[in-house]
Specification:
The chain is built from nine helices and no strands. The longest helix is centred in the last third of the chain and has 29 residues, at 151-179. The chain has a single domain, classed as Rna Polymerase Sigma Factor, Chain: A (Orthogonal Bundle). By secondary structure, it is mostly helical.
Length: 180
């Protein structure tokens, strides 16, 4: 039995410490994801808290046949859907304070710019699928369960999302060359 499954079993038995240890592994990643789906940092934090409370409250319903992260992101997606605003927080609002070398900042900036562009170009579900696949490294099946969509829908929309972003990046590169 994996450490995660042991923590889940202990949390199901009522251990708040086990649940805290379990959630600690996902807190930052969930907040980053929610920042892209919330109108403000405070709203993203609120949705995160609601998600964690719901996860603790309904932990008895978690089925260990599926990944815990899939179940947790599904709760987060549902909570975030209740709170949508016109302005989104850029991913750069949340930084990993432990890693601050210049090269990491440059790489983070390029990644953030890509995700900001993706947020503007893709609809909510396609963006979520792209985020879960490439930022969270989830499998197509896990993404399908998290978004309550078929595996076929997930594959097609991941492909469409990549195509839209590729077209956008190629267009931006051509414009940069024309002015450079």
């Amino acid at each position: 039995m994996s450490d995660e499954l042991k923590l889940i079993a202990a949390a199901k038995a009522g251990s708040a410490d086990a649940f805290a240890d379990l959630v600690r592994a996902y807190r930052v990643r969930l907040l980053r994801f929610l920042l892209t789906r919330s109108p403000s940092y405070a709203d993203a934090e609120d949705v995160l808290q609601d998600t964690l409370v719901a996860a603790f409250r309904y932990l008895h319903s978690y089925d260990p046949r599926w990944r815990f992260s899939t179940w947790l992101y599904r709760i987060a997606i549902r909570n975030a859907a209740k709170l949508r605003g016109p302005e989104l927080v850029e991913i750069g609002d949340l930084r990993d304070q432990e890693n601050d070398p210049l090269q990491q900042c440059i790489a983070d900036s390029e990644t953030e710019n890509l995700w900001v562009s993706a947020r503007q170009l893709l609809n909510d579900e396609v963006y979520s699928a792209m985020w879960l696949r490439y930022a969270e490294d989830m499998s197509v099946n896990d993404i399908s369960r998290a978004l309550d969509r078929s595996a076929s829908w997930t594959k097609v929309n991941l492909m469409r999302g990549r195509r839209v972003l590729g077209t956008h990046l190629n267009s931006a590169a051509q414009q940069s060359e024309a002015y450079g």
